[in-house]
User: Fold this.
Amino acid sequence: MIVAQPSTPAGVVDAVVSLISIRPGRLRVAIDGAPAAEPENLAEQVVRELAPRRSLLVRADHFWRQASLRLEDGRHDADAWLDHWLDEAALRREVLDPCATTGRVLPALRDPITDRSLRSVRVELPPDGVVIVAGSVLLGRGLPFDVAVHVHLTQAALVRRTDESQGWTLPALARYERERNPAAL
Assistant:
């Protein structure tokens, strides 16, 4: 395990690009962090920096379960958000497993707002292609990532940077840190 502690978004991007660049072949990368850490934005920057190596950003929220399943306990159930919103089987089936075998991955399954299929076309990755799955609470689920990056915020920064409308996720993020210890994965 390589532990890097950059203190700026640019430092995080540089560290991730370095981790990816030293590895040959197709890679499955996770960029995990609280919504306040903006892991999707960091992943977009990593994709740009990796060019000309072909890379594809897959947003984890495009692989959330259908709303009828994920919202059974309400829209603001922190435990459900942590444990049940991500459709792990679909992410594995449509992105992670194909990346390692055929290279034909589905970049998105459904829109998290409208809950409708995005009807995405499969993307063929070259032999050195990179899939970057970005989102929150991704680690500690047994998903087959070749490189896993957890963007940690201090508790004070997390509280300060979390939008008021997302405050209900804070207990789940504390539980995630405590139970899954993503920084150690």
Notes: The radius of gyration is 16 Å. Residues 9-184 form a domain with the Rossmann fold fold (CATH 3.40.50.300). The first helix runs from residue 9 to 21. Strands lie at 27-33, 55-59, 104-105, 123-124, 130-135, 147-151.
